[in-house]
Design brief:
Helix content: 10-25%
CATH class: Alpha Beta
Largest sheet: 8 strands, mixed
Structural class: alpha+beta
CATH superfamily: Fumarylacetoacetase-like, C-terminal domain
Bound molecules: 2-oxoadipic acid, magnesium ion
Number of domains: 1
Order of helices and strands: HHEHEEEEHEHEEEHEEEE
CATH architecture: Alpha-Beta Complex
Shape: globular
Oligomer: single chain
Number of strands: 13
Number of helices: 6
Strand content: 25-35%
Radius of gyration: 17 Å
CATH topology: Fumarylacetoacetate hydrolase, domain 2
Length: 261
Amino acid sequence: MNTIQEAATLLDRAAHERSDIEQFPSGQFTLAQAYEIQRASIQRRIERGERHKGIKLGFTSRAKMVQMGVDSLIWGLLTDAMVEEDGGVVDLGLYIHPRVEPEVCFVTRKAIDAPLTALEAAEYLEAVAPAMEIIDSRYRNFKFSLEDVVADNCSSAGLVVGAWSRNFDGLANAGVRMQFDGRDVQVGSTAAILGHPLRSIVQASRLLHGAQMSLPAGSLIMAGAATAAEALRPGVHVQCQIGSGPGALGRVAFQATRAAG
Ligand code: OOG
Ligand code: MG
């Protein structure tokens, strides 16, 4: 049996040392305890000098729930160290078994400190951008229960955010196309994200409220993947395009390499 603090240390160390661990024995932690482990493991990163950057939602689309066999919406915490540069190089040696998925990212204009309705959500946002999340479960073979994945900060590892705009109108049902070396690997629609990515803001506001937390202005909110994730491999050029024509969100890209051991 691990305590909350021991589990947090195990997960933090696995991420830091890029070595996977076994899932926890089933039933060892409740969902509430899993969120405590998540907070405690992020706290270790903050103590090493990383800064809070926002939050991410997970399992906001059917495609992701089906791929991972988990069917509840979850959320995790982002730090500045997770941000990879748009158009830059991502060193896969810094991850265990990374996968990439197409997302939409928002940045907040006002602090979110109360539950919001869908109508209010846009008012709290400064901008939106096409994004990709690099997920990297600390559990062997990406196998986990709902409690395991929550404890592991919802597999958060990296994120790449494209150019910001205020094209909120283009969000409802925009085409999503993720390509490896110019070939489609995942194709979908932003409507796959809770019917509309702005609903992720509503959900985020409720989750924050339930956890008695508030999110400061200038925070990122990753809305959750629109499609299943794809395993990354060194040498591949990854690009994601969201929408087309004048209201498009645009595209975001990176080159995957392997330098570090
Ligand atoms: C968990 C993270 C889920 C999403 O966008 O749905 C997630 C995982 O798939 O390992 O980030
Ligand atoms: Mg995601």
